[in-house]
Amino acid sequence: MSKKFSVFGVLLLGAIVAMFLISPGVASADRGGEGGRGDGPVIYVSGQGLYYDSIVTADPLPPHGPFQDLIMGENGLETEFGPGDHGYVGGRWRLLDGDGNVVKYFSCPLLGPGRDAP
Asked: Is the separation of the CB atoms in 23 and 41 below 8 Å?
């Protein structure tokens, strides 16, 4: 799952994340109504095979304490562990680019229950 991203891909990832983290109203407008909740991005948990809505609570965070990796994968923003899994740290994320470099630290808890489609 470690794919190299082009400069365009990294810039696109940054723009998508910035849209959700800086302008939460845009994300909630798209997902308002039935099924969609939260003001953050939808995150795919690969270990569960489920998608979760999220809510942005702190942006940015200082790079101290436990963080979980969040990457741009085949299913959008992805992580390995979600609610109920050992390894889920409550939505404290370390966003990584395609080369494994940290782009940002932020808090964005996942809202259960997870679902099969974004």
From this structure: no
Which phi-psi region, left, alpha or beta, contains residue 53 (left: φ > 0; alpha: ψ -120 to 50)? beta
Q: Tell which phi-psi region holds residue 87, choosing left (phi > 0), alpha (psi between -120 and 50) or beta.
A: left
Give 113: exposed, middle or buried? Use CB within 10 Å, 0-12, 13-18, 19+. exposed
**From CA 113, how far away is CA 42, in angstroms rounded?**
12
Please tell me which residue, 11 or 91, carries the higher pLDDT value: 91
Higher pLDDT, 71 or 11: 71
CB of 103 closer than 8 Å to CB of 94 = no
Q: What is the pLDDT of residues 14-32, one digit of tens each?
A: 545 554 444 443 333 344 4
